[in-house]
């Protein structure tokens, strides 16, 4: 998505968004750190040889496809995506690598989770047969010990800055070869891009 906007306003918005982005991505949240240094994150490997991973700690994240409550537990169906190496959030705009059933030992309100991005950590317990539409599918099961729901945020990405180019204070103005590429007072002329990312 692209928009045209006032550069001075956009600069302030971008700086504020940058602070939020950095504070949200400095480390993995405590709720999904797990108890082992390197929880299993390779879903394809688990699906190919689940018997090798049963009992190990796994960490997977993606988009919640469905929520099913039963007695004393909730099952989340998650379309798993690769995780960020910085904060273990699902990497947006990457294709799903498969699906899992994540079991949480209490009631969860479906409207709080359906369609949301989430990362879960817990014990890999095996494979459960299910269906995607009319197609049989083998879901990796995980008994969840912790989870993190993610919020979608947006930041403004500005055109490359020409600080000073085209400004009355810039030498040889307006004969500078850069003059026609930049607006008055050195602000770039062009379209800003809106980027979406996940944060706590």
Automatic annotation (TrEMBL):
<protein>
    <submittedName>
        <fullName>Outer membrane protein slp</fullName>
    </submittedName>
</protein>
<dbReference type="InterPro" id="IPR004658">
    <property type="entry name" value="OMP_Slp"/>
</dbReference>
<keyword id="KW-0449">Lipoprotein</keyword>
<dbReference type="Pfam" id="PF03843">
    <property type="entry name" value="Slp"/>
</dbReference>
<dbReference type="GO" id="GO:0019867">
    <property type="term" value="C:outer membrane"/>
</dbReference>
